[in-house]
Amino acid sequence: MSFDFSLTQSPRSPLINPNWILLDSESIVCVFCNKDLLTNIGESPDGEVLKVYTNGGSQESKSVGTLEGFGEVWYNPKSLANILSMAAVHRRFRITMDSSVDASMTIHLPSGKKLHFAEGPSGLYYYNVNNKPALFQSDLCLLNTVESIKANFRNREVKGATLPRKLSHFYYTQQK
What we know:
With about 180 residues, the protein is an alpha+beta fold. The protein folds into two domains: about 20-145, Cathepsin D, subunit A, domain 1 (Beta Barrel); about 145-175, no CATH class. Helices cover about 20% and strands about 30% of the residues. It has helices at about 85-90, 135-140, 145-150, 155-175, and strands spanning about 20-25, 30, 40-45, 50-55, 55-60, 65, 70-75, 80-85, 95, 105-110, 115-120, 125-130. The strands form three sheets. Strands 8-1-12-11-10-9 form a six-stranded mixed sheet. A hairpin with a 5-residue loop joins strand 11 and strand 12 (about 125-130). It starts with 19 loop residues before the first strand and ends with a helix.
C-alpha cells in the first residue's frame, strides 16, 4: 500500500500565515503564494516552468512576480508559504544570527535597517508582513540616492569623482 501526499494550502484554512515570509535554508528557489506581496505578476520568461519536489510531492509554477527591493520570485497561489531561499537572500544582503541573544535571523539592509525573522513555534523562521508592512515594502528598495552614496566617501573622494564631470561640462560648453 502506498500513499501520495501533496502539500497545498487552502485559502480558508492556511497552515502557514499567508502574511509570513519564511527564510528557508533548505530551499534553492523563492516561491510566493500571496499575490499581495508582489507586483508585476505574469508568465515566467520564455514560458519556463519551475517544478519543485518535496517530501510532500511536487508542484509546478508558471508565473513570476517582483518582490519589491528583492527582485523576481516565482508565484504560485497553491504554494504552502511565501518562501525566500536563504541562499538567494545572502547573495544580496548580509544575514546574521546569534542564538545566545535571540532565536531570530536578521537581514541587514543597505539602508542600515534590519529585518528580523523570528523563530515560530514550529521552528520555521518568519517575517510577519502584517506587523511592519511599510518596513518590508520600502526598506528593501535597492535604489540609492546620490547623497546616500556620497555619505560613504570622504569629501576629497567625492570632489575627485565630480571633477571629471565638471571638466567635461566645461569642455563641451566651450566647443559650442
